[in-house]
Design goal:
heterodimer; A: 665 residues; mainly alpha; two-stranded antiparallel ribbon; 18 helices; B: 494 residues; alpha+beta; Immunoglobulin-like; five-stranded mixed β-sheet; 17 helices; 12 strands; extended
Chain lengths: 665, 494
Amino acid sequence: MSAHAAVADKTELHPEKSPLGLVRPDRYTGWRDWLTTVDHKKIGVMYGAAACLFFLIGGIEALTIRWQLAIPENDAISAQLYNQLFTMHGTTMIFLGVMPLSAAFFNFLVPLQIGARDVAFPRLNAFSLWTFVAGALVLNVSWLFQFAHMVGWFGQDLVRTDIAPAGGWFGYAPLTSDGYTGIGTDFWVLGLQILGIASLAASFNFIVTILNMRAPGMTMMRLPVFTWMTLITSFLIIFAFPAITIALAELMFDRFFGTNFFRVSMGGQPILWQHLFWVFGHPEVYILVLPAMGIISEILPTFSRRPLFGYAIVVFSGAVIGFLGFAVWSHHMFTTGLGKVATAAFSLLTMAIAVPTGVKIFNWIGTLWGGRIKFSVPMVFALGFIWMFMMGGFSGIMHSSAPADAQQQDSYFVVAHFHYVLLGGVLLGLMAGLYFWVPKIFGKQMNQKLGYWVCGMVVVGFNVAFFPMHYLGLTGMPRRTHTYLAGYGWELWNHVSTIGAFILGIGVAICFINLVWTVIRGKKVEDDVWDGRTLEWSLPSPVPAYNFAATPVISARDAWWVHKHGNKQITYMNDGGPEGVHMPSQSWFPLMCGCGFLVFGVSMAMMAAGVPHAGYFAIGGLGTVVLGIYLWALEGPGGYHLKTPAPKPSPTPAPAPEAEPAGHH
Amino acid sequence: MVSVSLMLQYLRRTLPWLSLLAVSLLAGCSFTGKQSALDPKGPVAQVQDDLFWVTVYVNCGIFVVVAAALFYVVVKYRERPGDEGKPMPPQGHGNPLIEIGLIAASVFLLVIIAIPTLKAIWYTHELPVDEEYYEPSKLGIWYGGRVDSEAKDDILEINVYGWQWWWSFEYPQFGITSANEFAIPAGKVVKLNLRSVDVIHSFWLPKIAGKVDLMPGRKNWMWILADEPGYYYGQCAEFCGEAHAYMLFRSEVMTDGDFQKWVEAYQSGAAAPGGFQAQPDKDKPDPTAKDDWMAWSETVRKNPEAIPGDPVHEGAELFMGKAQCIVCHAIDNSPAMGQTAPNLTRLADRKSLAAGILDNTGPDGIIDSEKQLDNLYQWIAHSEDHKPGNLMYYRADAGLRNLKYTGVTFGKLQTVGITEQSLVAAGVSSALAQKISASPNAPILNVDVDSEMMTKQQLMRVMDGLTNEQFSEVSDWPTETEFRKIAAFLQTLK
């Protein structure tokens, strides 16, 4: 489109006007470049930074919870604040911690792994990011209002003091109806609704990218497993999120406009909320877990120097997990009076989902079997993942037996179970990914010695914190209780658990501090620091804006590994050429949409709180979003050309292994 | 890089200490705690516990095999010094036979769990009419002739109602209602009808049965059977709002004889204060407890001097009058017939107060009357300190808090040192402050401020500096002495 000649650096571009008559923000550097960027790598980094920030907030919430529970009948914090903390801890960790950190990896890695220059819709990608940020802020702004209330800005006698959400991350109606909770629930409903828009937009983007933008020769069965898991996760999101979107919309109508979806006195049905929520909520578990499984499936082969055992079965079992994930939601509702047939059906389906999960674990061990295992930091985390995830799987099988679950449901046993899956599993997986890909993202490496310490502290602290919770739950301690009476036999293990939580917290904090330090001061490392297997390792670190100077042509799974050690070379199409690589233009409008969503969300909650004229601001916010999308459409895609350096010579392939020629599939 | 042999050496050295630590910590593990699901005392909990252990054994079996395999490969196939230059390990992509074998093995292991699971689902979800203990559970068999003839073939039913944050136990076959503590006969099948009046709660009495939710708008039920007499602890297991952690309940499992006595005691209701008795007349030659209460309230109304001036009588008067307790509470036989708070008939027989958080018993497990009296006083006079959000204090239209702020006039506020300036300092507009001070005898919460929530809050803020004593001087809030009298009255409810 652009008639301009290719430039080596975008700051050399001439100012270009879009059809709107506005100058495109292509030439910016610094913070304006980050705000307007459409580069999937920068967007990934921002997702990651936001995720780390919210991990920190969610972690502080968790440690406050554990501090309160360290001794019986503690009054360190009020019941109300405790309820807000566990509500926001769950919501934050799931929607603002794990999901965006996974999204960070999706964004950064997927185009690189499939040999593409960006995602299919770069501006939509930026829109997803800023909408996510808006949703996250809507949720967390409630804390600011809460603190303002605590220091007395709103007077001491507000009728409802639950400004931060206090209805639980699962938001069960009718507790979340307007009769029982205040504007906290409005912040929560709107925040989640906005986050859902971000997730849906991002998922469509990744599905289109993965299906359409693969490099020549990158067939579906040559896709790196992480990309496969991204694809499956994206499908899960587009099928699961509409359920919660409907549930949230109904709850919002109940609260704002007086409908009776969930109001019992008007004939509403609270059970409807639970079905809608868990039809989303259970696939959500796999939305959180599958990316971590993908990461593990990249790291284990790299450090055991063997291809993934049973690639096709690992991919297929990921898809089966995703599919079955939609058929087990009612196991969250075994105690709601489903009746025996439904209870039996969901019990058996839940057991069935253990099979593809077990298959993955067998295949990971199979990958290690016969390899030459190098215990680098990402590998140590990945091995920790297998152990902890397996433990979480075991307690999951225990829950699947509905009568046994009648004792475990809503007790600390469940808290132990899903933290083994989501923290021992997902967090260890994501941290493995962090140690593995930070050298690619920033061209710098995190401190490896410290990495072993972090891993040790996280694994030890995690087990000390969460293993005793199995015992607490089985001996009758219900979850979501702000305190417990002495004399039930829960004192010792709650105390131990708190100590473990702080060890874990310190471990994660060290990791994050080291990460920030590395980004600022870390020392440069070579491009292919781990002897990697997939295409991203064939690129320089940090990766240039256009990713691939020339499009790679793929002829094997684990293409880069086979290129280096096997008998099938990657060849490059000469598409960079003298006219350079076409780059998409940057844009302000995705950010504008995000700002609109932020104003909309906060104003709606303010309207519920009775703040005068807030409704007009809400309309204004939504108007801003619509206007942003409209202008973005009128603006046109634009674009410019970047010069690429002369292609560097391929590294000399190492001699092929004697035992068996690599990449024979 | 951490060398594996070094690690093993280190482990060998620390293992004795670690195991000592583990043993001493395990000594802190008891499976028989008050609310332990691992200590089943009835067939439902027993079936659930048995199933739990089946899953544990199966999982332990899998764990041993998988963990051994994982440990083996990590040790055996680790990179050793000097391996760097060696050729790459074999690049195999998998083995379908192994995969299919492992899938088949997993399915087989799950079947081991699935079969008893299905049996237990049917067992716990249907009344056990085929079991040998069902027939003797019919009321006609063990409760003698004291039930209606149409109830003879029925088992005992209890309607359990969940409220934020307490429990009501209604026995429709006996016409009685208890709160937060309930009794059942040992060895009998009991059907619990689970209902909620507000949000979702969950009934969990771990030693007797796993939980079932109380869903508003749904009619859930469960059956339970307790093997032996004893005292059992339970609590709400579904997050239900601010004081969810304090929604406890207790169940006393009794012999048939004790249970019948318990029911009859409830049926006879609470005696009138201080043994006040109605005089027999020609209409009622044999006055009942209900007549005693009616005579008492007649006397209070028409001839108050005839009421003895002891704390119990005065407490009863306060309960029925100034303190407005009867708006929500019921005491069977008495004029108190409120339906939105715990039924207080035989309150003094209960071993706990405030849905289980205040314990009335001494070290021997028997009610300590001094402790009970203090608990009663603490609970009614300072309930907001003991149970956050509790509706006895916070209910806007009828609670104690309402009482605290009703009847406050500017004239009375002036007697405890509050001036027009202090109103303004608390954020009340000077125009409104002037208006309030102009009509010193009107209740200030009604002076033009009903719709203005913020203004109301500012006014309350002025008053929040007041002590309880000052409050009782300026408003309808009972004095400390009055609260103690009410407590003294409540202690006679048995």
